[in-house]
Write a structure and sequence with these properties.
Elements lengths: L1 H18 L6 H24 L4 H29 L4 H26 L2 H6 L5 H26 L5 H22 L1
Helix pairs in contact: 2-3, 2-4, 3-6, 4-7, 6-7
Keywords: Signal
Protein name: Hydrophobic surface binding protein
Pfam families: HsbA (PF12296)
């Protein structure tokens, strides 16, 4: 009976440690942002290549959006698990996000002008698919941005909020083009 109790206690502790969210590191968040940056660049390139890339290009845009959504979700999870950032780490992460802001805004500005091109493709519903992708990406971007803001040092919050507001303004324009 004592053996069974010890075994049960040991298994319970192992299960509890596996169920607890793993603490993430700032290095992991930085790696996540690097992944987001490369995914944003790929999406921007796909958007800029459309409509010359045709239907396959439109599908590449959808695929790139899905890959970016996954990267944003992972980054949000990792930022949340990392917890509050100190000044140096917060500045490093904010600078990394700030560096990709122009590419994000460029991609959103470009796609907002291409609604008619998507509508002209031989498969109907591509514009609706772009709209769903944009709405999902905005939700995921907000989740990531809000997680960063929640963990940022107080003196960096206003800058982080401004970056998120700029990106959301570009999302609003792009979404409005497809509604």
């Amino acid at each position: 009976m004592v053996y069974f109790s010890r075994l049960f206690l040991s298994l319970s502790l192992v299960a509890a440690s596996l169920a607890a969210p793993a603490k993430r590191t700032v290095a992991q968040v930085e790696a996540d942002i690097a992944t987001i940056s490369s995914q944003v660049t790929a999406l921007d390139n796909d958007i800029n290549g459309f409509p010359a890339s045709g239907l396959l290009g439109a599908l590449d845009i959808h695929s790139a959006a899905g890959t970016l959504e996954t990267a944003l979700d992972q980054a949000t999870s990792d930022v949340t698990a990392t917890g509050p950032l100190d000044e140096a780490d917060g500045t490093t992460i904010l600078n990394a996000v700030e560096a990709i802001e122009p590419t994000i805004i460029n991609a959103l500005t470009s796609i907002s002008t291409k609604q008619a091109d998507f509508a002209a493709e031989p498969i109907s519903g591509l514009s609706a698919l772009v709209l769903v992708d944009l709405q999902t990406l905005q939700t995921d971007t907000d989740g990531f941005g809000n997680a960063l803001i929640a963990n940022a040092p107080a003196d960096l919050v206003a800058t982080a909020q401004t970056i998120l507001a700029n990106i959301n303004a570009a999302f609003s324009t792009a979404i409005a083009a497809y509604e």
